[in-house]
Amino acid sequence: MRYIGPASVDAWNFAAFFCGNSEGPRELERLIRRYLKMNAAMPNTTREQLDEVDRDIKLYKEFDEREKARFERQCFLWTAEDRIEWQKTQRSVAEYLLELQDKRNALLGELEE
User: Fold this and answer.
1) pLDDT above 80: residue 111
2) More confident residue, 53 or 15
3) pLDDT of residue 1
4) What residues make up the domain containing 108?
């Protein structure tokens, strides 16, 4: 069943609401992916697919910026394990953003045809 919530709820608010600030970046990333999956209706047209990919890219870039800001504020308090976990999350987000960019480029190619 698809979750239908207020239009003002975005993935970041969803993740922050359900896990608060106490959870690590992996949990936030997992919740953002869950949110995107729950709110994903099968787009019918290439334009709708492109819009959805653009939205996902925007959400992940926002997540990445927030994580980097959190790192700047808190890194001196973290253990080595926390830093390694943060680096793994950053790598995972970067890889997913590359996948989304490739998908976006493919959809743009389809639109131009």
Assistant:
1) yes
2) 53
3) 32
4) 11-112
